[in-house]
Amino acid sequence: QVDKVAELVARWFYCALSQEKLRRPIVACELGRLYNKDAIIEYLLDKSPDKTPMESASHIKSIKNVTELQLVDNPAWCGDKESIKGDKYDDLQAARFICPVVGLEMNGRHRFCFLRNCGCVFSERALKEIKAEVCHK
């Protein structure tokens, strides 16, 4: 059985298509999967018949099916800033991004939503507090 923590780390820290670490620009589909934008563009451009379609992105037919996300960096996160030599503890629950309204970390423990028109990302708790469909920015 798959470890729940490992599954959350894979979903929130790695591209669903290329399995590489997420890096800006990050896009999301209507199913809520996160992708690197360059991986989606490469997937859409490669129409060779011998290439098998990836099931994680088979529903994406054009770049209009994804939304570029406006993510807020977590000031407490120092993952890529330090050199990783294997001699320090990596906290897998520390998130790279946070909700700009309530400050929840985007690590998979809390539900997050994005607005399709602007790409701003908020926690579900923040959207319930705001009770508006327009972006707070």
UniProtKB/TrEMBL annotation:
<dbReference type="GO" id="GO:0005634">
    <property type="term" value="C:nucleus"/>
</dbReference>
<protein>
    <recommendedName>
        <fullName>Replication termination factor 2</fullName>
    </recommendedName>
</protein>
<dbReference type="Pfam" id="PF04641">
    <property type="entry name" value="Rtf2"/>
</dbReference>
<dbReference type="GO" id="GO:0006274">
    <property type="term" value="P:DNA replication termination"/>
</dbReference>
<dbReference type="InterPro" id="IPR027799">
    <property type="entry name" value="Rtf2_RING-finger"/>
</dbReference>
<dbReference type="InterPro" id="IPR006735">
    <property type="entry name" value="Rtf2"/>
</dbReference>
<comment type="similarity">
    <text>Belongs to the rtf2 family.</text>
</comment>
